[in-house]
Amino acid sequence: MITVFLPCRSGSERVKNKNIRTFAGVEGGLTRIKIEQLLKISQIQRIVLSTNDEEVMKIAESFNDRKIQIDRRPQHLALSSTSTDELIDYVGKIITEGDILWTHVTSPFVSAETYSRAIKKYYEVTNEGYDSLMSVSKIQTFLWSSEGAFNYDPLIEKWPRTQTLRPLYEVNSAFFMANHLTYISLKNRIGQKPYLLETSKIENIDIDWEEDFQFAEQVWRTR
């Protein structure tokens, strides 16, 4: 059994009403877009929409789909100060069986096809020694810290070809997959050996600031 955990609290400070405001002409915005995407995925049996926002609840209820389960999240777990670790502990208590796909409405370009591919890959790799999966963005460019070059040695070659640089991976938070027991035993949404699934540049777009929202709207309109 696959259950989606979709957190969607009210009170965004950086982007006002980012979950529900009209997005590129879509009424219901990012919440409606993400629910529509998730409902297309046959492998998913349940979508737990965890929110303290009445408007988000209305959008979800408008689908009238039995797959959608609204979790009225306690207010103390829907604050800007609430840590992800606290929320992970909560998820382990409300989803008590099967595998959990944790995703966000703020990644609107992760399509139903990509989720399906991720689910298929998850079941493949968990038979190969991995215990979880998460989406990442590949970084293979010149990286420096305040102490100098980080992923290459300029004493050997000042400017090597980028394709020869050691690749690094940024956790882009588009999605995570793990069994519910991982949440209980490790207090984490990934296991001790996660598979890193690369997503495309457009799928990596995450809406965290007002500029992100406006940029994503323009990209959405051109697709």
Q: What's the CATH superfamily, by name?
A: Spore Coat Polysaccharide Biosynthesis Protein SpsA, Chain A
Taken in chain order, the helices and strands follow as: EHEHEHEHEEEEHEH
* Amino- and carboxy-terminal Cα gap: 33 Å
Beta-strand content estimate: 15-25%
Rounded mean pLDDT is 96
Q: Level of helix content?
A: 25-40%
**Structural class, from helix and strand content?**
alpha/beta
Assign the CATH architecture.
Alpha-Beta Complex
For this structure, the CATH topology is Spore Coat Polysaccharide Biosynthesis Protein SpsA, Chain A
Strand order, main sheet: write it out.
3-2-1-4-8-5-9
Structure characterization notes:
- The relative contact order is 0.18.
- Strand 2, helix 2 and strand 3 form a beta-alpha-beta unit.
- The chain has a seven-stranded mixed sheet with strand order 3-2-1-4-8-5-9. The chain has a two-stranded antiparallel ribbon with strand order 6-7.
- With 223 residues, the chain is of the alpha/beta class.
- Helix content is 28%, strand content 23%.
- It has one domain (2-139, 171-222): Spore Coat Polysaccharide Biosynthesis Protein SpsA, Chain A (Alpha-Beta Complex), CATH 3.90.550.10.
- The protein is globular, with a radius of gyration of 19 Å.
- Keywords: Nucleotidyltransferase, Transferase.
What features would you highlight for this structure?
223 residues; alpha/beta; Spore Coat Polysaccharide Biosynthesis Protein SpsA, Chain A; two-stranded antiparallel sheet; 9 strands; 23% strand; globular; transferase; EC 2.7.7.-; Nucleotide-diphossugar_trans; Acylneuraminate cytidylyltransferase family protein
